[in-house]
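Example record

The entry below shows one chain as it appears in the dataset: sequence first, then structure tokens.
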Amino acid sequence: MPQYDRADLDSPLEPLLGRKTADLLAAQLEIHTVGDLLRHYPRRYVDRGKLTDIAGFEIGEHVTVIAQVESASLRPMRQRRGELLNVVIRDEKGATLDCTFFNGRKVGHVVKPGLRAVFSGKVGVFNKKLQLTHPQFEPFDPEDEIRPFVSVYPATAKMTSLQIARCVRQVLDMVDDPTDPLPESLRRREGLAELGRALRRIHVPESEADHHAARARLVWDEAMGVQLALALRREATAQRPAPACPPKPGGLAEAFEEQLPFTLTEGQQKVGAEIAADLALEHPMNRLVQGDVGAGKTIVALRAMLQVVDAGKQAALLAPTEVLAAQHARSLRAMLGPLGQAGELGAAEQATKITLLTGSLGTKAKRAALLDAQSGEAGIVVGTHALIQDRVGFADLGLVVVDEQHRFGVEQRDALRSRGELAPHMLVMTATPIPRTVAMTVYGDLSVSALHGLPGGRSPISTTVVPLAEKPSWFDRVWRRVREEVEAGHQAYVVCPRVGEAATEEDPEEPPEDDESEESARRPPLAVLDVGPKLAEGALHGLRLGILHGKLPADEKDTVMRAFERGELDVLVATTVIEVGVDVPNATGMVILDADRFGLSQLHQLRGRVGRGSAPGVCLLVTDMPAASAARERLDAIAGTTDGFELARLDLELRREGDVLGAVQSGRRSGLRLLSLLRHEEIIAKSQVYAMDLVAQDPGLAEHPGLRALVAETIGDEERAAYLDKV
């Protein structure tokens, strides 16, 4: 095996650690180079100076102790197969504590008398004695004794934290300090340690100040990597020419505004002015409009599309589902009236045509829609991902409006934007308000406009959690409440997490379950195809029920939705296919079954389907989860406020940040380990400013190769970082 005296971050691990260890790191943790290993940071530290004495433990406390195994014995479980390992540990002061391990035989060869290790867990009680039940433990050798901190790493069964720590120490002895990618002026201004020192001190800190300073520096690396990638994307987009579409006096947009039966809100006017100014420029608009449910984003988007049509261009509206695309097409036609009926009897003189293009259209209808787009006869084309296909051509595409951006990937968004010599303007909309740090991190390549305030005519919505675990009798009251809404002349939705029958674990309409520990022993989620017939025969017998889900053929979905809109159905039993865009003012009741299986934002979107007319709405969140669960915490949060911006913040606090940060990552690995959208808001904001300044001065980062490498490392997949070579 070749030996290296010195190494750098790009060096392979095999010459340093041996083939067996290098292969194990690669297979278990996708760690291939020195840099990969040194960026595999400790999850936490055990401070020997602050270890809790066993004698002072209290029930319910989470503790960490260095102790030696005094005795260990296996015994069979009483009510299931397998064996328990009963262990007694003794700390340095002589106090003892019982520990119990469920997988006795698996750990028994390690946890045996004489073992010294760091044990941690929650203190419980059994047979009137304190104990740790299945505690985590990390053995250590005499080398660890001289260090004030024990670094605990994310590990696997085959590659333990102790093994990783030994590998790190071995590599640190042979690696040279890397060239620091961050400019010295930035490091000095922010008081940041050099990269080499930070990498050493995060693994082997001598004090708390050491690992805090190291973390602070390495968080900056991640924040700068993300923000530079976004700044480069924004710069590259801005370099492409775009069609200038200034407002046209006396045009279609003005005619539309003159016929509006209501006054635009202050927020709609403000955001509309920002968009109009962007559209008039010769470089592409790239703007995100976020507004709460019912804030009137569709009107804002339509005004933008009409401004583009007035300039002789086309606009495309991209929706995530066929139901929403069809709903948008109907809404736009209804709002425009004769102004949207070009080619029909009674059309206004300057009317345009609205064409719907989805994947499930029949051959004849699809051919006609494609011709409308290709010939330019349709000024506005509404569709799903079918609009992205190569065979869909436009005569002169000037604006792409993407509805519900979180349903689309960056590649899908860019597929339409890259059509033709001129880049179309891009308007992205979401009814899921975004915390500031998410907007800066996930949508940092977009200018962000917040649409505040609700149009007149919106009614209040009351939200109640129906806790079946404590009050099962409330379930009958739910259906009586639905009947009351129908008897008052209104309509209601009943939402289930999944379709049913042929639905599987991969059912695309089943939301992810956030709390695995709480969900593991639960029944399957309720399904539309099971609940609908039971309600029709039982609690809602006599009412007109419809079934709607994403697996229905497109024409059936459209038929059901139209029947509900016309008031021919009293209750619509549906999946989350109605989550966004569906607008039936007469619908006032919303029952969400297994509500704990949905995320906060999704629940807020669903709730927004009611209260859209003159009558108040009621939303009932039905759950069988106990009061103390994290799932109930989410439901109580949404019942406590209708402010989507506040809920967005709560959502970020309650769910894993990795799900959010994943939206800026590509490939199987990325460089994001420490960046927190909650804790590092100030760093993210500062790094955005630094990144924009650096890219403005050095558009391709040609003079900053270290920063280019940092971008590639942070966003992961090299192929997707290849755009760096094009700017």
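Notes for this example: Residues 208-240+676-726 form one domain. The chain has four domains: 47-146, 208-240+676-726, 252-279+296-430, 461-641.
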